[in-house]
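Methods: holo model generation. Sequences were used as deposited, without trimming of termini or removal of tags, and paired with ligand SMILES retrieved from the corresponding compound records. Each pair was processed once, and we did not select among multiple samples. The sequence and 5-O-phosphono-D-xylulose SMILES for this entry were:
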Amino acid sequence: MVVSPKIAPSMLSSDFANLAAEAKRMVDLGADWLHMDIMHLALSKGYLVSRYSRVYNSLCYSGRHFVPNLTIGAPVIESLRKHTSAYLDCHLMVTNPMDYVEQMGKAGASGFTFHVEVAKENWQELVSKIRSAGMRPGVALKPRTPVEDVYPLVEGETPVEMVLVMTVEPGFGGQKFMPSMMDKVRALRQKYPTLDIEVDGGLGPSTIEAAAAAGANCIVAGSSVFGAPEPGKVISLLRTSVEKAQPIT
Ligand SMILES: O=C(CO)[C@@H](O)[C@H](O)COP(=O)(O)O
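and the model returned the structure below.
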Protein backbone atom coordinates (compact mmCIF):
# COMPACT_ATOMS: atom_id res chain seq x y z
CA MET A 1 0.00 0.00 0.00
CA VAL A 2 1.46 3.37 -0.96
CA VAL A 3 -1.01 5.74 0.66
CA SER A 4 0.19 7.69 3.66
CA PRO A 5 -1.85 8.65 6.71
CA LYS A 6 -3.19 12.20 6.86
CA ILE A 7 -4.68 13.16 10.18
CA ALA A 8 -6.94 16.17 9.80
CA PRO A 9 -8.49 17.70 12.92
CA SER A 10 -11.85 19.23 12.04
CA MET A 11 -11.59 22.91 12.91
CA LEU A 12 -15.39 22.95 13.29
CA SER A 13 -14.73 21.72 16.84
CA SER A 14 -12.12 24.41 17.54
CA ASP A 15 -12.56 27.77 19.20
CA PHE A 16 -13.36 29.90 16.15
CA ALA A 17 -12.48 33.04 18.10
CA ASN A 18 -8.91 31.75 18.31
CA LEU A 19 -8.68 30.00 14.97
CA ALA A 20 -5.05 30.87 14.17
CA ALA A 21 -3.86 29.69 17.58
CA GLU A 22 -5.99 26.54 17.34
CA ALA A 23 -4.54 25.77 13.91
CA LYS A 24 -0.99 26.19 15.20
CA ARG A 25 -1.78 24.03 18.23
CA MET A 26 -3.01 21.20 16.00
CA VAL A 27 -0.04 21.39 13.65
CA ASP A 28 2.36 21.45 16.61
CA LEU A 29 0.61 18.37 17.99
CA GLY A 30 1.21 16.46 14.76
CA ALA A 31 -1.76 17.18 12.49
CA ASP A 32 -0.99 16.71 8.78
CA TRP A 33 -3.95 18.67 7.48
CA LEU A 34 -6.52 21.06 8.90
CA HIS A 35 -10.06 20.13 7.89
CA MET A 36 -12.25 23.16 7.15
CA ASP A 37 -16.02 22.69 6.89
CA ILE A 38 -17.68 25.22 4.60
CA MET A 39 -21.47 25.05 5.02
CA HIS A 40 -24.52 26.87 3.80
CA LEU A 41 -27.25 28.44 5.88
CA ALA A 42 -29.93 26.39 7.66
CA LEU A 43 -33.47 25.92 6.50
CA SER A 44 -34.63 23.94 9.46
CA LYS A 45 -33.67 22.14 12.66
CA GLY A 46 -30.80 19.65 12.62
CA TYR A 47 -32.75 16.63 13.84
CA LEU A 48 -34.74 16.65 10.63
CA VAL A 49 -31.62 15.55 8.82
CA SER A 50 -31.56 12.15 10.43
CA ARG A 51 -35.30 11.66 10.92
CA TYR A 52 -36.61 12.72 7.54
CA SER A 53 -33.46 13.00 5.48
CA ARG A 54 -35.01 12.41 2.04
CA VAL A 55 -37.65 15.08 2.47
CA TYR A 56 -35.14 17.31 4.17
CA ASN A 57 -32.58 16.87 1.40
CA SER A 58 -35.07 17.79 -1.28
CA LEU A 59 -36.04 20.87 0.71
CA CYS A 60 -32.37 21.74 1.06
CA TYR A 61 -31.73 21.40 -2.64
CA SER A 62 -34.80 23.35 -3.67
CA GLY A 63 -33.89 26.01 -1.13
CA ARG A 64 -30.26 26.00 -2.33
CA HIS A 65 -29.00 24.87 1.09
CA PHE A 66 -27.00 21.69 1.50
CA VAL A 67 -26.85 21.18 5.28
CA PRO A 68 -28.68 22.61 8.28
CA ASN A 69 -25.82 24.68 9.58
CA LEU A 70 -23.82 27.78 8.79
CA THR A 71 -20.07 27.90 9.31
CA ILE A 72 -17.29 29.71 7.50
CA GLY A 73 -16.38 30.82 3.99
CA ALA A 74 -13.48 32.07 1.90
CA PRO A 75 -12.83 35.21 4.02
CA VAL A 76 -12.01 33.04 7.02
CA ILE A 77 -9.78 30.76 4.92
CA GLU A 78 -7.98 33.87 3.66
CA SER A 79 -7.43 35.16 7.20
CA LEU A 80 -6.23 31.80 8.45
CA ARG A 81 -3.86 31.39 5.50
CA LYS A 82 -1.94 34.45 6.75
CA HIS A 83 -1.13 32.51 9.93
CA THR A 84 -0.35 29.02 8.68
CA SER A 85 1.25 27.21 5.79
CA ALA A 86 -0.65 24.01 6.67
CA TYR A 87 -2.66 22.08 4.08
CA LEU A 88 -6.21 23.42 4.35
CA ASP A 89 -8.49 20.52 3.48
CA CYS A 90 -11.71 22.32 2.56
CA HIS A 91 -14.98 20.37 2.45
CA LEU A 92 -17.71 22.33 0.70
CA MET A 93 -21.17 21.36 1.88
CA VAL A 94 -22.88 23.68 -0.57
CA THR A 95 -25.30 23.19 -3.45
CA ASN A 96 -23.33 25.28 -5.95
CA PRO A 97 -19.61 24.45 -5.49
CA MET A 98 -18.69 26.00 -8.86
CA ASP A 99 -19.53 29.45 -7.46
CA TYR A 100 -16.83 29.10 -4.79
CA VAL A 101 -13.85 27.71 -6.72
CA GLU A 102 -12.23 31.00 -7.63
CA GLN A 103 -12.63 32.62 -4.24
CA MET A 104 -11.46 29.54 -2.36
CA GLY A 105 -8.38 29.29 -4.58
CA LYS A 106 -7.54 32.94 -4.07
CA ALA A 107 -8.14 32.61 -0.33
CA GLY A 108 -5.46 29.89 -0.10
CA ALA A 109 -7.41 26.65 0.18
CA SER A 110 -5.24 23.59 -0.54
CA GLY A 111 -7.90 20.97 -1.22
CA PHE A 112 -11.41 21.58 -2.55
CA THR A 113 -13.81 18.72 -1.92
CA PHE A 114 -17.30 19.05 -3.37
CA HIS A 115 -20.33 16.76 -3.06
CA VAL A 116 -21.15 14.34 -5.86
CA GLU A 117 -24.87 14.78 -5.14
CA VAL A 118 -24.76 18.33 -6.51
CA ALA A 119 -22.18 17.88 -9.26
CA LYS A 120 -23.48 15.01 -11.38
CA GLU A 121 -23.89 17.24 -14.44
CA ASN A 122 -20.77 19.38 -14.30
CA TRP A 123 -18.10 17.54 -12.33
CA GLN A 124 -15.56 17.51 -15.19
CA GLU A 125 -15.66 21.28 -15.57
CA LEU A 126 -15.63 21.65 -11.80
CA VAL A 127 -12.54 19.44 -11.36
CA SER A 128 -10.69 21.32 -14.12
CA LYS A 129 -11.50 24.65 -12.52
CA ILE A 130 -10.37 23.45 -9.10
CA ARG A 131 -7.02 22.38 -10.57
CA SER A 132 -6.63 25.64 -12.49
CA ALA A 133 -7.28 27.54 -9.28
CA GLY A 134 -4.32 25.69 -7.73
CA MET A 135 -6.24 23.30 -5.47
CA ARG A 136 -6.42 19.53 -5.19
CA PRO A 137 -9.87 18.22 -6.18
CA GLY A 138 -11.80 15.77 -4.02
CA VAL A 139 -15.33 14.41 -4.08
CA ALA A 140 -17.52 13.65 -1.05
CA LEU A 141 -20.58 11.45 -0.71
CA LYS A 142 -23.34 11.50 1.87
CA PRO A 143 -24.34 8.31 3.74
CA ARG A 144 -27.32 7.58 1.48
CA THR A 145 -25.39 8.05 -1.75
CA PRO A 146 -24.18 4.82 -3.40
CA VAL A 147 -20.40 4.53 -3.69
CA GLU A 148 -20.72 3.71 -7.41
CA ASP A 149 -21.69 7.34 -8.00
CA VAL A 150 -18.10 8.47 -7.47
CA TYR A 151 -16.38 5.86 -9.65
CA PRO A 152 -16.60 7.94 -12.85
CA LEU A 153 -14.98 10.87 -11.04
CA VAL A 154 -12.02 8.75 -9.99
CA GLU A 155 -11.64 7.13 -13.39
CA GLY A 156 -12.34 10.13 -15.63
CA GLU A 157 -9.85 12.05 -17.75
CA THR A 158 -9.73 14.77 -15.14
CA PRO A 159 -9.91 12.60 -12.01
CA VAL A 160 -10.40 13.71 -8.45
CA GLU A 161 -7.51 12.91 -6.11
CA MET A 162 -9.49 12.05 -3.02
CA VAL A 163 -12.85 10.53 -2.09
CA LEU A 164 -14.41 11.64 1.18
CA VAL A 165 -16.82 9.08 2.61
CA MET A 166 -19.14 10.79 5.09
CA THR A 167 -19.61 8.58 8.13
CA VAL A 168 -22.35 10.83 9.59
CA GLU A 169 -24.98 13.01 7.94
CA PRO A 170 -23.08 16.20 7.12
CA GLY A 171 -23.89 19.29 9.15
CA PHE A 172 -22.61 18.91 12.69
CA GLY A 173 -19.69 17.63 14.71
CA GLY A 174 -20.18 15.19 17.58
CA GLN A 175 -22.43 12.67 15.82
CA LYS A 176 -22.22 8.89 15.98
CA PHE A 177 -19.98 7.06 13.49
CA MET A 178 -21.90 4.90 10.96
CA PRO A 179 -19.98 1.59 10.68
CA SER A 180 -22.02 0.54 7.64
CA MET A 181 -20.15 3.19 5.63
CA MET A 182 -17.05 1.00 5.83
CA ASP A 183 -18.45 -1.10 2.97
CA LYS A 184 -17.94 1.96 0.76
CA VAL A 185 -14.40 2.46 2.00
CA ARG A 186 -13.56 -1.20 1.39
CA ALA A 187 -15.00 -1.09 -2.12
CA LEU A 188 -13.00 2.04 -2.94
CA ARG A 189 -9.75 0.68 -1.50
CA GLN A 190 -10.12 -2.56 -3.41
CA LYS A 191 -10.65 -0.71 -6.69
CA TYR A 192 -8.13 2.10 -6.11
CA PRO A 193 -5.11 0.98 -4.05
CA THR A 194 -3.33 4.37 -4.21
CA LEU A 195 -6.30 6.73 -3.87
CA ASP A 196 -6.60 9.04 -0.87
CA ILE A 197 -9.75 7.90 0.96
CA GLU A 198 -10.97 10.20 3.69
CA VAL A 199 -13.53 9.44 6.39
CA ASP A 200 -15.34 12.14 8.31
CA GLY A 201 -17.73 11.95 11.22
CA GLY A 202 -17.49 10.23 14.58
CA LEU A 203 -13.85 9.20 14.16
CA GLY A 204 -11.79 8.69 17.30
CA PRO A 205 -10.03 6.03 19.37
CA SER A 206 -13.09 3.74 19.43
CA THR A 207 -13.83 3.85 15.68
CA ILE A 208 -10.45 4.29 13.99
CA GLU A 209 -9.68 0.56 13.86
CA ALA A 210 -12.73 -0.13 11.70
CA ALA A 211 -11.95 2.79 9.38
CA ALA A 212 -8.27 1.93 9.04
CA ALA A 213 -8.97 -1.76 8.46
CA ALA A 214 -11.41 -0.86 5.70
CA GLY A 215 -8.69 1.18 3.99
CA ALA A 216 -9.21 4.82 4.96
CA ASN A 217 -5.97 6.81 5.13
CA CYS A 218 -7.21 10.40 5.61
CA ILE A 219 -8.90 10.76 8.97
CA VAL A 220 -11.00 13.78 9.94
CA ALA A 221 -11.62 14.02 13.67
CA GLY A 222 -13.27 16.90 15.47
CA SER A 223 -14.71 16.27 18.90
CA SER A 224 -12.44 13.31 19.69
CA VAL A 225 -9.36 15.52 19.20
CA PHE A 226 -10.54 18.89 20.51
CA GLY A 227 -12.44 17.30 23.40
CA ALA A 228 -9.51 15.18 24.57
CA PRO A 229 -7.38 16.18 27.58
CA GLU A 230 -4.34 15.37 25.43
CA PRO A 231 -5.26 15.94 21.76
CA GLY A 232 -1.72 15.07 20.63
CA LYS A 233 -2.16 11.53 21.94
CA VAL A 234 -5.36 11.10 19.94
CA ILE A 235 -3.70 12.40 16.76
CA SER A 236 -0.83 10.01 17.24
CA LEU A 237 -3.16 7.06 17.97
CA LEU A 238 -5.13 7.77 14.79
CA ARG A 239 -1.92 7.84 12.77
CA THR A 240 -0.57 4.63 14.28
CA SER A 241 -3.83 2.81 13.55
CA VAL A 242 -3.70 3.82 9.88
CA GLU A 243 -0.02 2.91 9.64
CA LYS A 244 -0.57 -0.50 11.20
CA ALA A 245 -3.48 -1.29 8.93
CA GLN A 246 -1.75 -0.03 5.80
CA PRO A 247 2.02 -0.22 6.11
CA ILE A 248 3.65 2.28 3.75
CA THR A 249 5.92 0.47 1.30
O1 LIG B 1 -18.20 17.64 8.17
C1 LIG B 1 -18.39 17.41 9.34
C2 LIG B 1 -19.76 17.47 9.86
O2 LIG B 1 -20.59 17.77 8.79
C3 LIG B 1 -17.26 16.97 10.17
O3 LIG B 1 -16.02 17.45 9.70
C4 LIG B 1 -17.35 17.13 11.64
O4 LIG B 1 -16.85 18.35 12.06
C5 LIG B 1 -16.61 16.03 12.30
O5 LIG B 1 -16.72 16.14 13.68
P1 LIG B 1 -16.69 14.89 14.64
O6 LIG B 1 -17.76 13.94 14.20
O7 LIG B 1 -15.33 14.29 14.49
O8 LIG B 1 -16.94 15.49 15.98
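The mean pLDDT is 90.
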